[in-house]
Specification:
Two copies of one chain form a homodimer.
Chain A (H helix, E strand, L loop, with lengths): L4 E6 L12 E6 L9 E9 L2 H7 L18 E9 L9 E4 L7 E4 L4 E3 L17 H14 L6 E4 L5 H12 L3 E6 L2 H9 L4 E4 L5 H8 L4 E6 L3 H10 E9 L3 H4 L13 H4 L3 E4 L9 H13 L7 E5 L4 H10 L5 E5 L4
Parallel strand pairs in A: 8-9, 8-11, 9-10, 11-12, 12-13, 14-15
Antiparallel strand pairs in A: 1-2, 3-4, 3-6, 3-15, 4-5, 5-7
């Protein structure tokens, strides 16, 4: 075990892409847990687009990370030392408060235990059987209520959320078109059962969507915003539903970004656009977890994890999300399992 | 009775504001009804923002008016001659197919009879007890589900729809802020029971909304889009609902208009934005009509009509909607009752 604690400290708010000056990796002592607390060692950090939001001070669904504080992040960790009967040494937990560091002090209410008998690898609980799986599940099923035969479009379709959204939509009998950023990713989601794919980097999205959605678009699961959203809005059917899960095309912008030029189609097509975050459905997580585990077991949902190595590589890893280099759920391993 | 029929013909699609070259007033013979048809004489034309949409060929919820055809419009009319037992001579009807002309041929399915015993003046059935009343009713109650104590913002609040929206929101126990374009209109909606008013022509909407909505905005009934929508999005609460009834700030634009710069708050606040048109609720119109009539009778809903005169003045009348000159529901009287 390490004999010190490395921490990524937010030094200033990034403008545009995250740069090396925005955060600093410092070394400090391993903290001691107080009464009712435990010391955990991070194993995997979940690297997500929302990390970029937390670094900025725009109005958002959680408080931004304060300047001078440890960067926030989801993680899977092991309890090292415990002063509370609710957390047992050697136990595996997941948490959002552990942060980008080697060790953290947590209280039981800040943690969720992982199942003791795990059928799936630890990284599955950070992807299709964890938060990104829940996000796909609730964002598709609860927000858009897909019906058999409807046309569903998914952006960042090879991503941790998008790939599961498409597979659940197929389970529900929909026609699914996935938009992603490389031919290789297109091939992969095709192998998952997506009916059609579009490579937004080499193809004209509006033109391809027109061809591939001859009956229009009923449901759009939006991870991007921007031009893809505009192309979709151009082609939506009456009473279309748009689930707003992410707006990754906007997060790196340092000036106000206009909303979709086809916004008026929300009126013209009597569409519904609804934002959500996975924590809104916390009371139903257990059901989702059970259903997702069954689908994964049955092979109906496949997933990919992209495990990068080393806490020191956190910045280059998070920036992979914005260039689309990662393949599957991006995870940073910071210690052995 | 006139011995000819004047008709406003759409000659070309307006670019920006409707100009005198876009439509032409021609004179023609009074048509003869065929079997199963009736001849009606228009009394009142309903002048609405949607007239401007129908003149353009953007993707919309009804087909645009074809070039060379009579301009479409809602009306109240009297049956003059009938070749169908379903329409009686002397009967008053409302219809969307009568158009901007003195006379029209209609079939029974294109008309709705007005109540035979009318408690309210004829113009009421073109405003608070008619389509604009229904629009307010469904757009507020069915789309946003207001709860007592919530903060509701209404744009074009002195308009035919907005003024009724605000009054229904008050009936439902909400706090209501109305945005309109003159101090006189502000005074009028204040007299209707609106808690606060904002004159968007002389006041900074974002600043005033911040002051007048100290607990944020739960519901926005949007008739305008544009900068007011952006100001509202800046201040929405978690789980806010936005009912998109109209986007009048966009209709006169001849180039693509960006959507709201604060679009991202749909995600950050997990808001729901939903477009609707009144015809989506046709099966519930009767209930709405009965409830609105009760509220009008009880004095809980007041309304204003702005009756302009003369079919020849249709163009200057419709343009009043875009300068905000009208006070209350804009109606053009084209013959005596």
């Amino acid at each position: 075990m390490r004999n010190n604690n490395r921490q990524w400290i937010l030094k200033k708010r990034p403008v545009g892409k995250i740069s090396n000056d925005d955060l600093e990796l410092i070394e400090t002592n391993i903290p001691e847990p107080g009464e009712g607390q435990a010391l955990i060692q991070n194993i995997y950090l979940s690297i997500d687009p929302t990390n970029r939001i937390w670094m900025s001070d725009i109005d958002q669904y959680m408080p931004p990370v304060d300047i001078g504080h440890v960067m926030r992040g989801g993680c899977t960790a092991k309890v090292i030392k415990s002063n509370t009967p609710e957390l047992l040494e050697g136990q595996y937990i997941s948490s959002f408060t552990c942060g980008w560091q080697d060790f953290a002090i947590v209280t039981p209410s800040e943690t969720s235990p992982l199942p003791e008998e795990r059928k799936l690898p630890l990284t599955a609980y950070m992807s299709a059987a964890g938060f990104t799986g829940y996000t796909a599940y609730f964002g598709l099923l609860n927000i858009t209520n897909p019906k058999p035969g409807e046309t569903v479009v998914v952006s960042t379709a090879a991503g941790a959320v998008g790939s599961v959204v498409g597979q659940i939509a197929k389970i529900k009998g929909c026609r699914v078109i996935g938009i992603t950023g490389s031919d290789k990713k297109c091939e992969w989601i095709k192998s998952l059962g997506f009916d059609e794919t579009i490579n937004y980097k080499t193809q004209n999205v509006l033109k391809e969507l027109s061809k591939k959605c001859p009956e229009g678009i009923d449901i759009y699961f939006d991870n991007t915003g921007g031009e893809i959203l505009d192309a979709v809005l151009t082609l939506i059917n009456q009473n279309a539903r748009i689930s707003v899960c992410g707006l990754i095309s906007m997060y790196n912008e340092d000036k106000p970004v206009p909303g979709p030029y086809m916004y008026r189609n929300i009126l013209m097509k009597r569409a519904r656009v609804e934002g959500f975050i996975v924590s809104d459905f916390m009371s139903e997580w257990e059901n989702a977890a059970a259903q997702l585990a069954i689908w994964i077991d049955e092979g109906k949902i496949q997933y990919k994890v992209d495990v990068q190595q080393g806490l020191e590589n956190a910045l280059s890893t998070v920036n992979m999300l914005f260039t689309g280099e990662n393949e599957g759920k991006l995870i940073l391993q910071v210690s052995d399992e």
